[in-house]
């Protein structure tokens, strides 16, 4: 019996697919899997639920997936495609509820600067967002899930991937927005059931893994299943899928994994 469900709210890169003004084959594709909103996931367990990142598409994603509850929010990093839906978390604070948010010190600093208005705890701001910052420096728990931060390089910033462990079982590692997976993170996620990896495009990129780089990481991790996310319009779902080895799949918006 699965008691951990992971839903891909979005699987696209910062510009989304289709990209504004682009007529390429992928942006004009009729395959719904080629329609990608900005990267984010939603995790459900019997005790509590949480999201990872709230980009500019968060509101539409939450409506699409009929999300009615959010006990906490985790952030990978503070690039706009991961945080610009922050204020759309307001409905989860109705009735004066507070929303714990988790991020690295670097990411939290940027979130608090970008959304300074949300961090003023004023009783008159009823109906507004009431975030409670938690700076992540090591593993923490939400309900019965142990969540381990996985620092990965992403250009000028460090992204936190997250490893989700329940009952001693490493269920899933979410590694969006990274150029590489360093040895310490490889060791941390060894034996994980499911790994989700940044795979931006075929061509190399300065801050994201290419398909070839993500495939090399997938082979090294050797998880039961690997899913690619944060795709750009260089990658058409059906075309890329035909070239992937067994056990490696391409996530798409709305895909649910029961782990
Ligand atoms: Zn991103
Ligand atoms: Zn395009
Ligand atoms: Zn980024």
Written overview of the protein:
By secondary structure, the protein is of the alpha/beta class. The chain has one domain (5-249): Metallo-beta-lactamase, Chain A (4-Layer Sandwich). Helices cover 17% and strands 29% of the residues. It is built from six helices and 14 strands. It has helices spanning 58-64, 80-83, 105-114, 183-189, 211-221, 237-241; strands spanning 5-10, 40-44, 49-52, 72-74, 99-103, 131-135, 140-142, 145-154, 157-166, 169-175, 194-198, 225-229, 248-250, 256-258. The strands form two sheets. It has a seven-stranded mixed beta sheet. The protein has a seven-stranded mixed beta sheet with strand order 7-8-9-10-11-12-13. Strand 2 and strand 3 (49-52) form a beta hairpin. The N and C termini lie close together (9 Å). The site of one zinc ion has 7 residues, from helix 2.
């Amino acid at each position: 019996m699965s008691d951990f469900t992971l839903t891909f709210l979005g699987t696209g890169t910062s510009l989304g697919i289709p990209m504004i003004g682009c007529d390429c084959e992928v942006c004009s594709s009729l395959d719904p899997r080629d329609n990608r909103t900005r990267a984010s996931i939603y995790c459900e367990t019997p005790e509590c639920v949480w999201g990872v990142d709230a980009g500019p598409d968060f509101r539409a994603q939450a409506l699409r997936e009929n999300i009615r509850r959010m006990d906490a929010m985790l952030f990978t990093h503070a690039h706009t495609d991961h945080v610009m839906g922050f204020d759309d978390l307001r409905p989860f604070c109705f009735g004066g509820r507070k929303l714990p948010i988790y991020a690295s010190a670097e990411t939290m600093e940027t979130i608090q600067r970008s959304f300074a208005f949300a961090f003023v705890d004023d009783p008159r701001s009823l109906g507004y967002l009431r975030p409670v910052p938690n700076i992540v420096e090591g593993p923490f728990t939400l309900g019965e899930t142990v969540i381990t931060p996985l620092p990965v390089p992403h250009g000028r910033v460090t992204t936190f991937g997250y490893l989700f462990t329940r009952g001693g079982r490493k269920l899933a590692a979410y590694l969006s927005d990274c150029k590489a997976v360093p040895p310490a993170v490889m060791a941390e996620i060894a034996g994980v059931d499911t790994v989700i990896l940044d795979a931006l495009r075929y061509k190399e990129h300065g801050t994201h893994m290419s398909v070839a780089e993500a495939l090399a990481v997938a082979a090294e991790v050797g998880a039961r299943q690997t899913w690619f996310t944060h795709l750009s319009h260089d990658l058409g779902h059906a075309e890329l899928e035909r070239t992937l080895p067994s056990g490696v799949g391409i996530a798409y918006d709305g895909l649910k994994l029961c782990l």
